[in-house]
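[Meeting: bench + compute handoff]

Bench side (C.D.) handed over the final construct sequence. Compute side (W.E.) agreed to return the predicted structure before the next meeting so the bench team could plan truncations. Sequence as handed over:
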Amino acid sequence: MIDKRTYIFAIIIYLISIGFFVLGLTRPIMGTEVFLGLKSSEIYLIDSFEYFYKREEIVLGTILLVFTLILPIAKYLFLAVILFKVSLPSLRWIHHLLEIVNKWAMLDVFIVALLIMTFKFESTLIDNYVMIGTTYFAISIILLMTSSFLVLKINKKKSS
């Protein structure tokens, strides 16, 4: 018998994670001030894709796009199919894909760190700082990983 509380908890964490993911995409991840605040700007996650593509760093821009936007959205969709019991001909391949995507989960964190390090450089004239969008994105990753772990745990119990 599947623990109903674990299942409900997985759904709640999943839904909260989606909220934080959207906040991470819509809130600035970094801020920049030039010479004592004379000019300031905010950088959003979406801006980072443009940043790399404009500088013709296609590989880095694509890696960032895939691991911060496409794979997390795919993971949200796979989990939704499982959590909300969407009827498909065979859910076995979705479970298999979810396990594959889970193996790459820590790459999300690496990409965010890479992005921060790319924009963060020491200068006496320019001050870069992390903003709330980074925190929201990191929380969404942790919650998504937790929800995914619970779903896989539930499925292993069910198949035993």
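W.E. noted at the follow-up: The chain has a mean pLDDT of 79. C.D. will use this when planning the next construct.
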